Amino acid sequence: MARSTSRPTRLAEEASAAAQSMAEQARALREAVAVFTTPDADAWHAR
Fold it and tell me: From start to end residue, where is composition biased (Low complexity) (predicted)?
């Protein structure tokens, strides 16, 4: 029985690690592109 629950547990742990990694990458990307925003960017997108 332990063998049958081991794989789903491992998959869940891998999915959790991947989600955490993607969240960190998204944070880093937002930080990197933040220098490209302008004060009136929202007004331009509202057109």
Answer: 14-23
pLDDT tens digits for range 1-47: 456 679 999 999 999 999 999 999 999 999 999 888 677 766 666 66
Cα separation, 39 vs 22, in Å, equals 28
How many domains are there within the chain? 1
Q: What is the pTM of this model?
A: 0.62
Rg of the chain's alpha carbons, rounded to an integer? 20
**Alpha-helical segments (H) within the chain:** 2-33, 41-45
Quick one: pLDDT at residue 2? 58
Task: Give the structural domain span for 8.
Answer: 2-33
